[in-house]
Amino acid sequence: MGQSYEMKIISVSGIHWKPNVIHDTPNLYVAIDIDGKTVYQTNPSRKWVAMWSQICSLSVESPSSVIALQVFHRSTIGKKCLAKKEMEIVQLLETDEGQKDFSVVLNHVEKSARGTPEPTLVVRMTAIGHVQAAAVALANATQDIGILPNTSSAVGRVVNTEAGNNNDLLSNLGTVLSRLTIIGAELSKIHPYSNVAWRVLFSVYEAVQKQTETDADVCRLVQTMADVYAFVKDIESASEKITRFAKTIDALVKQTEECALFIREYTGHGFRVRLLENILSEDSDKIKGFVNVFQKFGESLNRGTALEILYVSTKALAMVEKTTQTQKLDSLKPVDMNASLRCECLPRTRQEIRDLITNWLTTPPGDDKPGNILWLSGVAGAGKSTIATSISQYFRELERLGAFLFFTRNKSDPADVIRTIAFHLARSNTYVASAICDAIDKDPALIDSPIHTQFQKLLLTPLITSQSHIHGPIVVVLDALDECGNAESRRTLVSLISNEFPKLPPAVRFFITSRPDSDIASKFENQIKIAKHLLDITIPSGLADIRIYLDNEVGELRKQQKLGSTWPGELKMDALTKHSSGLFIWASTAAKYLLHAYDLDQAIESLLNKGLTTLDDLYAGALEVAGPWSDPTFVREAQAALSVVILGKTPVSAAMIDALLVPKHSSSCIFDRLGCVLQWAPGQHVKILHASFSDYLTDHGRSGGEPWFIDPSILEPQIARGCLHILKKELQFNICRFEDSHIYTTKVPDLSERSTASISPHLLYSSLHWGSHLAVIGSASPGLAGISSATPLLPDGLLTDLKDLMYTKFLFWLEIICIQQKVVLAIDVLETVAKLAKDYQEEELADFATDAVKFVLRFAPVISHSVPHIYLSALPFAPRESKVRKQYSLWLVPSKTVDIQSSVSSQWPRLQATIEGHSSIIHSVAFSPDGNHIASGSADRTLRIWDARTGDLLVGPFNGHEDEVKCVAFSCDGGKIVSGSYDKTMHVWDAQTGKIIGVPLTGHTDRVNFVCFSPNGKQIASASLDKTICIWDWDEHSSECNTAPLVLKHAAPVRAVAFAPDRDQVVSGTGDPTGSGDSLVQVWDTSTGKPVTGPLEGHTQYIRSVAFSTDGKYILSLSHESARIWQVCTGAEVIAINTPIGTDAYSAAFTPNGEQIVVGYSDTLLRIWDVQTGALVSAPIDGHSGAVLSVSVSPDGMRIASGSGDKTIRVWDAYQELSTAIKVNAQYIGANDQEIMQMYHPGCTGHTNTVYCVAFSPRGDRIASGSWDNTVCVWDACTGTILSGPLRGHNEAVLCVAFSPNGEQIVSGSNDTTIRVWNVQNGTMVAGPFEGHSKQVSCVAFSPQGDQIVSGSSDSTVCVWAVATGSLVCKLLGAHTQAVRSVAFSSDGAQIRSASNDTARVSVTQTGVLVEGPWTLRVADQAYIIPFSPDGQLIGAPETHGVVQVLDLRLGDLTRLEGHTGIVYDMAFSQDGKWVVSGSEDTTVCVWDLETRILVAGPFEGHRDEVFSVDFSPDCRQVLSGSRDTSIRVFELTPDDTLKGAFGGGSLCQDGWILNSKDQPTIWVPPWLHHGLYFPQKLTCNP
Fold this sequence. Notes:
globular; WD40_repeat_CS; P-loop_NTPase; C2_domain_sf; WD repeat
């Protein structure tokens, strides 16, 4: 009858694609042929890496049947086979090697692909039975119903109707499938060929699913079949009816098979072809015959069911099973279990483990103890069986032993287990016995049924039925499960125990012992409802138990041999105990050896001689007799096998060792010989019995001259190479078959099962540890040309293997690393590879590994959460010139979500990590001496320690200060951190634990501004606003400062201090913001307390930061206005680097080479300056959204850490450029620092500071913006392209802009009190400056005719200007008493509306005479604009606490709109006055309906800082916003007042994920690209 298989087609990768030969877009599908006939094909996939996860069932006549796996591309001109593989089924099964998913390497068919790597098809293949095959067919049929196309035809009897005919046919087929699936399990009782059921269903399904047209007669035939099978509605009715109508159903099944065979032949090449060629009368007659016979089956079943179902059911059962005699419990034929000769634990031994077991078995299950099975595993000879016997006897005495089964190798049969358990359970409980007997009465043949059926009917159903009468626990003990048959014969039993036993009532408790054989361990380890305990032979109590045992055995021996009461003496007994190494089997064997010895004294001396000599002699002697060490082959293979045991990073099995060995050989025969020194049994880990054995083997002084010496410098790289070979063979794309990239990897429900199934133990070991085997290589490389003698010696081929991994499987390896949550490990390994490559002058490999480090570092936040996003987010966002991106460009997954413009940087960005965690501003950051950690101090009163590479929190928060933490510093050894606080104290902390060391350092009377350790770690310096520096002597032994500090007094508050690197000196910086003290730099001798250099003068503002250069020759000092470099020896100023206009400097640090300084500024930027020339070394580093308050440079000079007012810490590459931009289905505008960025990016323009005002043009096609960078810009509102600007002329911030009615001019008002008019097209100033206001101009507007401009100012006045002449037409004096926030002309230009924080009024344009008002307003002082509606009826009045207020000036009604969480800075009305838009301190933009008072759009997210300005487009389809983050955003609205775009309500969350409308993570955008990110409803103008 052949065999059935379920095959899952998962993915294909590596297809060579040549568009000019094949096609631009892939349209791939997989076709499967069996013996030359196509039996299945997948749906087409249009992805480069095609994934399906489609399941089909395959029927083959024999294992030698040939299967062809083919990948086709279908285009408009036909199909083309790209790759294929033909093999016998048996070969495919061998390829599986026991894994669930496996890869088949295909052969290229396309000539253009020859010479390229072969593609890989990943499939899963499982042998299945008839019911499973039917279920597969049913699933496929159900999936296909309703999706098949219909093609009309007018030939013969082809049905020329809608696709509904196909749907009806498939639906009827589905009915047959589902009903027959229900009765499938029952068919085996009555039908000797019951597997025909799946053949029926699969044949029919196969015939129908390929057709586009249907035959009316075939449809009628299948309909009739469905009607007949309708007698089965559920499993209960199926069982009864099958029993009753056994013969009828038997015939029905046979007829169904015959009918299906006919249909398959009739439609062998598809309905259309077969029907056109074979419209024959005999076919029609056959179909009619089939219809008639099925109708008779239906009549037969319907006539008798309702009349005799109850009575006939019994008679039918008797008829069917007339040869079976009803038997009771004895019919179960249980195996005799005589435990009378089994040994129990001696009193006082194994008490700890026995208590653990009995407590677990007698404790009801709960959340912490799920399930009803306890599995005790351990090595052979550990004493498991003795423990099991003791446990069974314990519960026997309590009359709670349900069953005790113990197995013996080669004698126990897994087929006996279920019925033997049932027999003993029945004897233990009368209610259980009654239920089991009922099951036997119903099915007397249970004894011969599969054990799964036995379990269901003899255990599960009876125990559930009786559970109310089971007063637990009833304990079932199964001892030595590993000796019950072999792995193959007990496979079903082990699966039952693992998957089905937990379904039994919790009162039935199972205690199981076994060796950790792989077949048992693989089932039990990942089953959460099985409790596991490993019997550890190395614990001290085990040796104590062995001593008790030996005392007992030797005591018996003394009695028998009439020996002295102290023989053989305590020393020898102690030696025997220690010699056992925790193995009871050794102690037992030793006792038996003595028992049968002729000369006991000689025998015990023989046992102990080896043990009482030196340990090295013992090991040498044991090894010497273990094998032929004179044979070079044995030596090589034994060394290799032992090296994995000794040098392996985790315990490994013999199978894993075999996989790691290069060249390959079996290690089992080696371990068989070394049983005297190793703990090993097949299927379990190989372990040394004692750590001293490893020390002996690897110590050249102890075993260097022996053939078993293990030289790590030679054998470690051999193990590494073995790991690399495994990686090359087994790594593959999407190794765990993740289907949904929206689910974080750690949230995948069956992640553990997927990982176990897809990642073999040796693949996991190799993935995690190949790097560590490389890292410990320590041998010299003598005589290698061009390579240092300190260069590690690598075996032949290792560098080639490294290249192969890096260039072909790096991303696949990274998948496993991320699944295991070991991203930091990847960084370490890649750095090791880079170093080795450099040592061997493999520059290309070194460059790739270095690039790979950057790849992992930059994308660690996403790949550690979601493995698919290695390909979906990380690879696409890597720079164009990234070596990883280039090498793996074929794996780039095209995305409809993200569009990366050509302006994306070709190099890696500077930003390496963004660290969040503090709840307030970051005052201080400091690198540890090794550069691996960063300490931070915050205004939230805490310290934290972070991983400098990944940004992960390592330690903290440290709590102890009572006020803001102002400063932190590491000790020279990195073991301690000192912190200073506004609470006037310092704390010293343990950097590993976060605990305070000693007591707080007190003595300052004001805030502590700066702290540092001396280079030798013996002193701490602190600077305070109390005008002193304290030098504290730190006692390492007492962990405190035992003496009063040395106090260095100053004339002004001290804000900074630093130790000299090479002498007992400190430098201090002083100053007072009030100007009451000088801003001076002073160098002090810490041994005398005297100044030695200075005071150094030059700063005009107080000094914030000081530092010595690494060589101690120079001093860096920083104040708001400049950074200065001084010579230490002379005090001469070397250079002064002025702070850029419009910003303040906060913190500075030398680079380690002393050639540059890094400075953090209030404009959110970091700048790196050359100390010799004072020039910028590179473009300013942009990324923070708040002032940069602290900077620190890593000791190697490669990284910069910065702490900011935005509450984040960022880690930067010190030497990389950043010029990036991305877009999300929209356009991007790059706008970089005009003053500085132009030197590095000449084509890049835009605002460099807060965007304070924005406005749409009258046609809505342009946007005007004004900024604190003193400029005006004009943008294309559709594309985001900058049209004009930045327009320069104002001397201070531009606070307001407005378009003329014709859109050709822009008016701007500034903090410099002037007004200017600009030409939109060419950016020239056409009028102004208009001077007349005495304070900042806060609002401007054109008249309807465009000939006049009205302006409002903080000087409380309103002015009207003639555009042509610039003359003042009218000035309203006294109209307002506070700053004017809004001005506007009436529609005819005759009147002016103006509003301040306290009043609003309408005046005559020419004279200023009051027409309406004044109206009293109550507006927040922080509000920048108080807008009028276009008709002048309404006025906006923002409130402090996030409330939008709208006042009806005529009616006096006040509307309050609540939703913002911060101050509302600006509002604007739509043209029809129905909506109002608001921008807030909370960084969001909201759109409100004034009539319903509800939020109709937003809050729109995207800005990184406060939103200062908003506006509506003229058509009300867009809202515009400008922000402190220097960006401008346009949010689109649809006509029906809702957001449009594929993302719906999606947004960018704080971790960088773009969420879809279901709040699922869709794509991850790295932090350095957030500034250029926006959604379908957004347009962004960013720097």
